[in-house]
């Protein structure tokens, strides 16, 4: 069995794309996933599967959500080890890391696109694009950041979803099965 973490983007935000976690857990369990757990309402799912293809799992979960709730959303699935590597590769000092956001990308963008996107700077917002993650530290807090996830998705030609430090720690803890 492989332990996976699925990050669902854009659900239960501002009353849009509502997905009750209890219902989602039941649907995913009935689909054959095992030890399904969710963390908070923003779309974090931990589960185990014998399937070794995370893209196949993403497609399956997207189909379940579309059929059950009537909308399609981006889903990024990582193994626990992949998420732990992303977490451990944070380039910021520990005091900044605990206030950072981890923006996971569904693919590693080309070097050229990363270079072009990295030219964009904002006062008090510091980021670094490493492989399939943008590490973001906002000195004044994420709510006051000039950083726009959609701009980077378009510039890097990827889907992305963000999680803060505390959520990353909790997901790693919950997935230590």
Give a quick precis of the structure.
The chain is of the alpha+beta class and 177 residues long.
Task: Give the strand tally.
Answer: 8
Low-pLDDT parts are none
CATH class of the largest domain: Alpha Beta
Tell me the distance between the termini: 10 Å
Proper CATH architecture of the largest domain: 2-Layer Sandwich
Question: Mean pLDDT across all residues, rounded?
Answer: 91
Radius of gyration of CA atoms, rounded to a whole number:
16 Å
The CATH topology of the largest domain, please?
Alpha-Beta Plaits
Q: How helical, in percent, are the residues?
A: 25-40%
SSE topology string? EHEEHEHHEHEEHEH
Roughly what fraction of the amino acids lie in strands? 25-35%
Q: What class, by secondary structure content?
A: alpha+beta
Number of helices: 7
Largest sheet: 4 strands, antiparallel
The backbone outline, from C-alpha atoms, is globular
Q: Describe the strand arrangement of the main beta sheet, using strand numbers.
A: 2-3-1-4
How many structural domains in the coordinates?
A: 2
